[in-house]
Amino acid sequence: MKTVYDIYQMLEKKNVILAFQGVMTSELLTSILQIMETKMDRLEETPKIKKKVFNILVECLQNLYHHIDLDEIDDGNREENSSLFMIAKTNNMYTITTGNYMKNAEVENLENKLGLINSMSSEELKTYYKEVLIQGTMSEKGTAGLGMIDIARKSGKSLEFNFLEINKDLTFFSLSVKIAD
Amino acid sequence: MENLNLEGSAKTPTVKFDSKSGKLELKGRSIPENSIEFYKPLNDWIDGYATNPIGETTVDIKLEYFNTSSSKCILDLFKQLETLNKQGTAVKVNWYFEEDDEDMAEAGEDYQAIIDLPFEMIEVEEI
């Protein structure tokens, strides 16, 4: 039972107010959004911060939701389809952290994109967003390639990320987004 | 033609498209995981309306939140209206945003820069 306390202490130390590990579903996504809205209302956050956190949450959670097709051939219950979500609050700063598996072959693209996003000023991000919006085509899943750009625009801070290679096929990707007034 | 009325949900906006008054309203949140499915009937309705539009068409966008999946669909909707604007009806867009919601105001400006339609930015206390 020692581990339970370890997990508790770890979450407490990191000021985590909500965490989830598992397969992200549409229903779960709705629930998490509702819980966070209630929490922020109770904390009497300003409308501005509430909107930013909510918007970024939607994009982060939907990224986790959409990545669940690593392998269309199985039943979707493999560990690789699992993901991690945490939201922490310290003083006036919210930190949203996500983790999910991805194919090694897709790492380079994402790494380049995140590097490019982090190198851009807010004006450049605005232009980049519009470019992708105009040219971008919609995938079958309904994703438009705008998620990360939007997250960076709304957060106004650099995206922190890491790629941890697990084996010859898979990498664990983690992302951390900070939101402050 | 029939009006299009859809009740809003936790992830989709209230839709009120009225062919007689030429008023098209989207209100609430648009954050479905896959927005194509949701926006398809809206595009279809506009196609129908385009065959016999009234002189002035007003589009009221009163969104509290929208996700990036919806942003592409909203652009496509505006593109449809842009075409319609040159075919016998004057289309006008009213983009509503709440006080201090710079992100929503900026989103409106993004569309205004891309789409050739008159946009009015309207700041309100609450949507």
Structure description:
The complex is a heterodimer of chains A (181) and B (127). Chain A is an alpha+beta fold and 181 residues long. Chain A has one domain: 2-Layer Sandwich (Heat Shock Protein 90). Chain A has helices at residues 2-13, 26-42, 47-66, 107-119, 122-135, 147-155, and strands at 16-22, 83-90, 93-103, 160-165, 170-180. Chain A has a five-stranded antiparallel sheet with strand order 1-2-3-5-4, sandwiched between helices. In chain A, helix 2 (26-42) runs antiparallel to helix 3 and helix 3 runs antiparallel to helix 6 (147-155). The radius of gyration of chain A is 17 Å and the shape is globular. Chain B is α/β, with parallel strands linked by helices and 127 residues long. Chain B has a single domain (4-124), classed as STAS domain (Transcription Regulator spoIIAA, 2-Layer Sandwich). Chain B contains three helices and six strands. In chain B, strands 1-2-3-4-5-6 form a six-stranded mixed sheet, covered by helices on one side. In chain B, helix 1 (35-49) packs parallel to helix 2. The longest helix of chain B has 18 residues, at 68-85. Chain B is globular. The interface between A and B is medium-sized, with 34 and 29 residues.
